[in-house]
Amino acid sequence: MSNEMNKALQEELQNISFSEIAGKNTSKDDVTTDLSLYDGRNTKLGYADISWTSSNPEIISPSGFVMCAETEKKVTLTAEFTYQDYPDIKGVLTFDITVKPSEKARTSEYIDTNKIRIFIAGDSTACNYPHEGDNNRYPQTGWGQVFGELFNDEVIVVNCARSGRSSKSFLREENYQFISDNIQKGDYLFIQFAHNDCKAEDLNRYTSPDDGSYQECIYKFINTAKNAGAMPVLCTSITRNILTDTTLVPYGNALKNIGEKENIPVLDLYKVTHEALEKQGTEKYAELHMHIVPHDTHFSDNPEFLRSQYYETGSKDNTHLNINGARVVASFAADELRRINHPLAKYLKD
Q1: Residue 196: helix, strand or coil by DSSP?
Q2: How far apart are CA 182 and CA 133, in angstroms?
Q3: If you placed Cys at 161, which of 127, 335, 341, 344 could pair as Cys (CB 3.0 to 4.6 Å)?
């Protein structure tokens, strides 16, 4: 079956154009402005993470950020597609593109340093997804994408989570560097990894609580926060919509042990989401995930859904959240802050 699925994926990839995974880029084949390439895409096999390599890593980073150079550059760009549910299946797509000079210099996201800032380091269950334009990802949403909706105006959420990342691979990329460069005294760093750490077949991402490699990476995030005078918050990973899956449990236990040892607050998102799954059952709990049918009327209130990758094909995904599920999980995170009487709880809206 894997060979047949691999063949089906390769056939599908042949029909994917660069513009479909280049976000808001205005050119079909060339890069005309600094941009972040999509880090995932819907395929006939379901949601696939995308990791990037290029012939010029100074221009295009491993996480897919494109920095336009002062002169025109020819770049060979390779996208590797991997799956949560099919770890033995990989697809590779190569583009020869031209990166052209841009009048718009790269500007970091403006962050109001007068506000309380929550930085989030995490994976695809927490990250931001594009919700507008051609080939957007609506209704797929990370809980970190909507977490800021729950706070008053004194708090800003800076969501640096990225699809397909583990605690190990995130540390090598520019989103981690962005956190390191900007986090300061009084800020918070929420840390949530495990979904990709457990992929033993991928040594670039794999970590284990058994040999301490997972804990080693988590401590690097903790120290990044503490060295800047910021406060770390550990978050266990949300459950998959699979009652029998215990893959994430050892990672959550390791995280809670670190929290207890170092006196660091822990939001036990695995516990609260798995309890909800056990109470509701997989069929009902699937309503929080990317289980959608083509032309799904549940999301037709947003006109951008007509241009979504999921509008025609639908999706059946037990890992990633739709916008409703993201808001539910974000509310779970808020409830956890209240439960442990965290200082951030007083900034939550009633």
Answers
A1: coil
A2: 30
A3: 127
